[in-house]
UniProtKB/TrEMBL annotation:
Pfam families the record matches: His_Phos_2
EC number: 3.1.3.62, 3.1.3.80
Compartment(s) of residence: Membrane
UniProt keyword annotations, A-Z: Hydrolase, Membrane, Signal
Top-level enzyme category: hydrolase
Catalyzed reaction equations: 1D-myo-inositol 1,2,5,6-tetrakisphosphate + H2O = 1D-myo-inositol 1,2,6-trisphosphate + phosphate; 1D-myo-inositol hexakisphosphate + H2O = 1D-myo-inositol 1,2,4,5,6-pentakisphosphate + phosphate; (2R)-2,3-bisphosphoglycerate + H2O = (2R)-2-phosphoglycerate + phosphate; 1D-myo-inositol 1,2,4,5,6-pentakisphosphate + H2O = 1D-myo-inositol 1,2,5,6-tetrakisphosphate + phosphate
Stated name of the protein: Multiple inositol polyphosphate phosphatase 1
Gene (name only): MINPP1
Main location: membrane
Family that this chain belongs to: Belongs to the histidine acid phosphatase family. MINPP1 subfamily.
Species of origin: Bos indicus (Zebu)
Signal peptide: 1-20
Length: 382
């Protein structure tokens, strides 16, 4: 559930190769803890950056550990030299900020519930009452942390990558794989889970040790690289700390489309419209996705919104991403240049090394004389 990238995987092979493959994938994908995929919502296509991974990539549902591969890709003719994967964290809890808004909504509903016992006693199919009774199971400590499902997302991703590129993920390359991550807890935890997935690949059936004891070494934290937006002064000044940078988003939040939803929701929940605002409504909308992704349950919040509402709320989220992360300001994308430079430098290095090796008569002799730490093998997590 996105914002920036979360992980970057870089793996190099022992050299037998002709082609460098860069795989920069915004990590998503994963699969279900249990096969209860019947729990879906008509709203699912509109959650944008909060979409459940399996809804974005349903091809994985039959077997989340088996990759789907273009049959043409890597067909005998070429061999991958290096793999670079930029990976997001797995499924996570809402942030504390989101949880507080949800609690505020819950409070509104419960205050209303006390005055409303008559209606409820009358047995009206009251969505507001259902929501007031729906347990608020999110607590502040959860603060955007990776959930168990998110660990599974990462383990399965590792298994898919390993079976997609068997030459790169060979046993002898395992020790050269490196992972870099941002310091964000959900990213550190995602990296650890990814390595546990790989352990499972290399040692099926054995419980994974502490990641510090794995051959590939623990993930390295590098915020300059992986949280480039926090280290780009121009981005911070022009966008992040600039009160007017998102004025289009603010305008939409108070515009007629949003007003219609506020009125409609106030009416359904039977709370004063003045107590609602776009931010609260957006969190309520995302709660449908969080409950599905984390618990595999369909929250009554899913029933509050129809498809037209969902389109408006999707637009609100897209608009924010556009101005803050996307094309709205050129500095948004330019702030990632350091990361991409790093990726391409490693790719260039892998290709050069490969070419050098191709010129050598005795590859094996060369490798025995090489410090394995010099290999461009990275597995990066942010
Ligand atoms: C803040 O954003 C507005 C709107 O894009 C822009 O006109 C202004 O120059 C920005 N301020 C700074 C300090 O960059």
């Amino acid at each position: 559930m996105p914002r920036g990238p979360c992980s970057l995987v870089r793996v190099s092979a022992t050299p037998v190769a002709v082609l460098a493959v860069a795989l920069v994938s915004s990590l998503s994908r994963c699969s279900l803890l249990e096969p209860e995929n019947s729990v879906v919502s008509a709203l699912s296509p509109y959650f944008g950056t909060k979409t459940r991974y399996e809804d974005a990539n349903p091809g994985l549902l039959p077997d989340p550990e088996v990759p789907r591969r273009d049959p043409e890709l890597l067909e005998e003719t070429c061999t991958p030299v290096q793999l670079v994967a930029l990976i997001r964290h797995g499924t996570r809890y809402p942030t504390t900020k989101q949880i507080r808004k949800l609690r505020q909504l819950h409070g509104l509903l419960q205050a209303r519930g006390a005055e409303d016992d008559r209606t409820r006693a009358a047995g009206r199919g009251d969505l507001g009452a259902a929501l007031a009774d729906w347990p608020l199971w999110y607590a502040d400590w959860m603060d955007g942390q990776l959930v168990e499902k998110g660990r599974q997302d990462m383990r399965q991703l590792a298994l898919r990558l390993a079976s997609l590129f068997p030459a790169l993920f060979s046993r002898e390359n395992y020790g050269r794989l490196q992972l870099v991550t941002s310091s964000k807890h959900r990213c550190v935890d995602s990296g650890a889970a990814f390595l546990q997935g790989l352990w499972q690949h290399y040692h099926p059936g054995l419980p994974p040790p502490d990641i510090a004891d794995m051959e590939c070494g623990p993930p390295r934290i590098n915020d300059k690289l992986m949280r480039f937006f926090d280290h780009c002064e121009k981005f911070l000044t022009q966008v992040e700390r600039n009160a007017t940078a998102l004025y289009h988003v603010e305008a939409f939040k108070t515009g007629p489309e949003m007003q219609n939803i506020l009125k409609k929701v106030a009416d359904i929940l039977q709370v004063p419209v003045n107590n609602l605002n776009a931010d609260l409504i957006q969190v309520a909308f995302f709660t449908c996705s969080f409950d599905l992704a984390i618990k595999g349950v369909k929250s009554p919040w899913c029933d509050v919104f129809d498809i037209d509402d969902a389109k408006v709320l999707e637009y609100l989220n897209d608009l924010k991403q556009y101005w803050k992360r996307g094309y709205g300001y050129s500095i948004n994308s330019r702030s990632s240049c350091t990361l991409f430079q790093d990726i391409f430098q490693h790719l260039d290095k892998a290709v050069k090394q490969k070419q050098r090796l191709a010129d050598m008569d005795n590859l094996e002799a060369w490798w025995t004389n090489t410090n394995p730490n010099h290999c461009n093998t990275g597995l990066t997590e942010k």
